TrEMBL record:
The active site is at K183 (proton acceptor), E190 (proton donor). InterPro entries: 6-PGluconate_DH-like_C_sf (IPR008927), 6PGD_dom2 (IPR013328), 6PGDH_C (IPR006114), 6PGDH_Gnd/GntZ (IPR006113), 6PGDH_NADP-bd (IPR006115), 6PGdom_BS (IPR006184), NAD(P)-bd_dom_sf (IPR036291), Pgluconate_DH (IPR006183). The keyword Ubl conjugation does not apply. It catalyses: 6-phospho-D-gluconate + NADP(+) = D-ribulose 5-phosphate + CO2 + NADPH. Pathway: Carbohydrate degradation; pentose phosphate pathway; D-ribulose 5-phosphate from D-glucose 6-phosphate (oxidative stage): step 3/3. One of its GO terms (biological process) is pentose-phosphate shunt. NADP(+) binds at G9, L10, A11, V12, M13, G14, N32, R33, T34, V74, K75, A76, N102. Substrate binds at N102, S128, G129, G130, H186, N187, Y191, K261, R288, R447, H453. GO terms for molecular function: NADP binding; phosphogluconate dehydrogenase (decarboxylating) activity. This is 6-phosphogluconate dehydrogenase, decarboxylating. Gene3D superfamilies: 6-Phosphogluconate Dehydrogenase, domain 3 (1.20.5.320), N-(1-d-carboxylethyl)-l-norvaline Dehydrogenase, domain 2 (1.10.1040.10), NAD(P)-binding Rossmann-like Domain (3.40.50.720).
Length: 477
């Protein structure tokens, strides 16, 4: 029998992806550097579908029908290059290598270029949803050539998650690195979403005085409204969990040092290169990093906070409603920033990414799946050239309705000394974008003063310089 698809790299993700293909009726060739894992997969799950176990790279390639579709699901970075080097010489023009790992899109662009010369389609593919998603339906973000999508698309559509309206959560995102770029930004938005939820939790606890289990109930209520999402749902689960050993809330026995694997950091690094202000995502990455500086935090613990008698009395229930408004408004800003980065990447690399389609395939399977994404899709479907999500009428109206509460929440946070870098950065972004005048004019004056960097005027064309050290007359530069 020849297999329609092969998966090499059978750790949690690869194994579950292979099972997903098999459960959907495809014959799947499976291969892993350590052969024991291949055998274990077939022994344990062979009954779920049709697998062909391959011990060697040669056997693996020989098991695949042509053109070959070969999925790599190994540790991102050098292992991916090692595996490509092992398989590429065994392949023929027209064959496809699908990299489903969390590769950096620049690596994907390089690999695609290198393999194109050999006639091999390299399909850098973002996969989101963790191991559960890989098995039952992930959100899939393939890049690569349109021809490769013609061949792969129907299979990916079959194994992908389905949105509430039944649409498969996969689309051809764009050429070469487009898929991995979009996956990267997805993860950046995920960091921001998690940070905002964390701040909401902290405020409900420290300002409103709710317990973790009460806050879990609040999140459950929010999850029936416009914040309906996987992350809100699991937040309630985590907050209501009680540690068996101590009987304390689970959140109170876990070390408060957040770890990260790097895709959030990439989102910010690339945003800096592209000149896109993703301040909310950046604050989320920095908040994780700050949490990890145990020594710095210990050394700072005695620093002064707000004086007790100035603290507000709050109506807890009313405050919780305000926090919901602040969370929702900040979330709109995070997505606005993330989609701006996708637009900038798409322009820089000529990817022609359909933003509505991206919102659509994030509706199911992935970590940021949310009812909210339907509305983002609708916004871009109505106006594909929307300059920013904030210029969509519906979102603008919602922020208009939320902003007073959003500001009040930040006033309370500031008075009580509760850090809210995500909420604050989001509001600063919103206020900066709507400002008639920014202090950037002063910045330009300073730059011209110390470095003769010149400036533009609001009333005339051209570049100008003021002779600051002389008679302060203006000259055309
Ligand atoms: P790991 O990232 O832990 O990778 C382990 C796999 O890589 C094993 O199959 C291992 O083979 C193989 N491998 C490592 N080095 C080499 C090498 N030099 N040559 C050949 N094979 C090698 O596995 P995961 O399943 O967690 O993730 C797979 C990919 O999917 C990663 O790129 C990850 O970033 C990405 N991803 C993971 C998600 C998750 O939730 N875990 C979600 C989305 C994407 P061996 O058994 O022989 O050691």
């Amino acid at each position: 029998t020849s297999a329609q698809i092969g998966v090499t790299g059978l750790a949690v993700m690869g194994r579950n992806l292979a099972r997903n293909f098999a459960r959907n009726g495809y014959t799947v060739a499976v291969h892993n550097r350590t052969v024991a894992k291949t055998n274990a997969l077939v022994e344990e799950f062979g009954h779920e579908g049709s697998f062909v176990a391959a011990e060697t790279a040669k056997e693996f390639v020989a098991a695949l029908e042509r053109p070959r579709r070969l999925v790599i699901m190994v540790k991102a970075g050098e292992p991916t290059d090692a595996v490509i080097q092992e398989f590429a010489p065994l392949l023929e023009p027209g064959d496809m290598i699908i990299d489903g790992g969390n590769a950096h899109f620049a690596d994907t662009r390089r690999r695609e270029r290198e393999l194109r010369g050999q006639g091999i389609h390299f399909v850098g593919t973002g996969v989101s949803g963790g191991e559960e998603g890989a098995l039952n339906g992930p959100s899939i973000m393939p890049g690569g050539s349109p021809e490769s999508y013609e061949s792969l698309g129907p299979m990916l559509e079959k194994i992908s998650a389905k949105a509430a309206d039944g649409a498969p959560c996969v689309t051809h995102v764009g050429p070469d690195g487009a898929g991995h770029f979009v996956k990267m930004v997805h993860n950046g938005i995920e960091y921001a979403d998690m940070q905002l939820i964390g701040e909401a939790y902290q405020l409900l606890r420290d300002v409103a005085g709710y317990s973790p289990s009460q806050i879990a109930d609040i999140f459950r209520t929010w999850n029936t409204g416009r914040l309906d999402s996987y992350l809100i749902e699991i937040t309630a689960e985590v907050l209501s969990h009680v540690d068996a050993a101590t009987g304390k809330p689970f959140v109170d026995v876990v070390e408060d040092r957040a770890e990260q694997k790097g895709t959030g950091r990439w989102t910010v690094q690339i945003a800096l290169d592209l000149g896109v202000p993703v301040s909310g995502i950046a604050e989320a990455v920095f908040a994780r990093s700050l949490s990890g500086h145990a020594d710095l935090r210990a050394a700072s613990r005695g620093l002064a906070g707000p004086t007790a008698q100035q603290l507000d009395e709050v109506d807890a229930a009313a405050f919780a409603d305000r926090v919901e408004q602040a969370l929702y408004a900040s979330k709109i800003v995070s997505y606005t920033q993330g989609f701006h980065e996708i637009t900038a990447g798409s322009d820089e690399y000529d990817w022609n990414i359909d933003l509505g389609a991206v919102a659509s395939i994030w509706r199911g399977g992935c970590i940021i799946r949310a009812a909210f994404l339907d509305r983002i899709r609708a916004a871009y479907d109505t106006r594909p050239d929307l300059p920013s999500l904030l210029s969509d009428d519906t979102f603008a109206q919602e922020i208009a309705a939320a902003q007073d509460d959003w500001r009040e929440v930040l006033v309370a946070a500031t008075r009580q000394g509760v850090p809210t870098p995500g909420f604050s950065a989001a509001l600063a972004y919103y206020d900066a974008l709507r400002a008639e005048r920014l202090p950037a004019a002063l910045t330009q004056g300073q730059r011209d003063f110390f470095g003769a960097h010149t400036y533009r005027r609001t009333d005339r064309e051209g570049s100008f310089h003021t002779l600051w050290g002389d008679d302060r007359s203006e000259v055309e530069a």
